[in-house]
Amino acid sequence: MAIKNSKKITGFLGIDVGSVSTNLVLMDEDNKVVRSLYLRTRGRPIKVVQKGLADLKSGFPGAVEIKGVGTTGSGRHLAGVLTGADAVKNEITAHAVAASFLCPGVQTILEIGGQDSKLIILRNGIVTDFAMNTVCAAGTGSFLDQQAARLNIPIEEFGKLSLNSETPVRIAGRCAVFAESDMIHKQQMGHELADIIAGLCEALVRNYLNNLGKGKELLPPVVFQGGVAANEGMKAAFQRELKTDVKVPVYYGVMGAVGAALLGREAVKDTGATKFKGFCLAEKDYNAGSFACNGCPNMCEVIELCEEGKVIARWGDRCGRWSNVILQKNNLQEKELAEIS
Description:
Elements: E1 9-17, E2 21-28, E3 33-40, H1 45-58, E4 64-72, H2 76-83, E5 87-88, H3 91-102, E6 108-112, E7 117-123, E8 126-133, H4 141-150, H5 155-162, H6 176-188, H7 193-212, E9 222-225, H8 232-242, E10 246-247, H9 255-271, E11 286-292, E12 301-307, E13 310-315, H10 323-340
Parallel strand pairs: 1-4, 4-5, 6-9, 9-10
Antiparallel strand pairs: 1-2, 2-3, 6-7, 7-8, 11-12, 12-13
Helix pairs in contact: 3-9, 5-7, 6-7, 7-8
């Protein structure tokens, strides 16, 4: 949705590039989110980041000045090089920063995205423990999408339907394959759909807590974020299992990008200026590739990013044989430009 305001917008940009979605958030200098975007990555992170920047800029009739940029997610390094990010941080840090900002005092963060899930423990605003599950699909957004499609129910209604259940059916939720098979079996036995969905939500919550929460002290306040937080059935199941209130932040689906924007703001306090390359990069031609280095037995896979046919970054080599050459070249160019100016 475009912002009907011709005034100049000054703020900080956060970008979260994941396997399923790429999220962008623009925060003003008062740390208020003025625009957020949720885009499907579809295996094309560069194109989606470019599209996101173009959409973000077009949403404001007036000028937009970016004073700091942060990137996170599995594609954070790629997005960082692409945009000239001031801060490139992992998802744990970004989600913890966002949750602490939007829900001060939070001690437990439940995060479930499209392909993975995380549990973050904070004490006095500091991350003291965390766990990630990137192996099992059970409980992730993609699995719930699949089940909603199989049952011919809009995903927006999937969680709400479970709230109508009075006697949830026990579903085997330790594995996505077993969960689906058990659901089909319960349907064939004649159980109500609401009871099956409610049972699925409870099974997935048990799976999450047994895998990620085992041996951890989950203290309130508890925050539930990530795309699956939109599922009211999952929230209700977490509340029953934890026996405490579970808060869902207003920007639950783009919390990584919110955290990245805040981290970008902190980064420029030290440098005094942003390295953001500008919205013009949305129109440039980028492509990424990789090659195996045969310089030693490690056989590192080196990622290479090209802008308009020119190599601008390499990473993935353990010894720095390839990446250091680009880094030194870029530093020399910056020094020459500074001397000219």
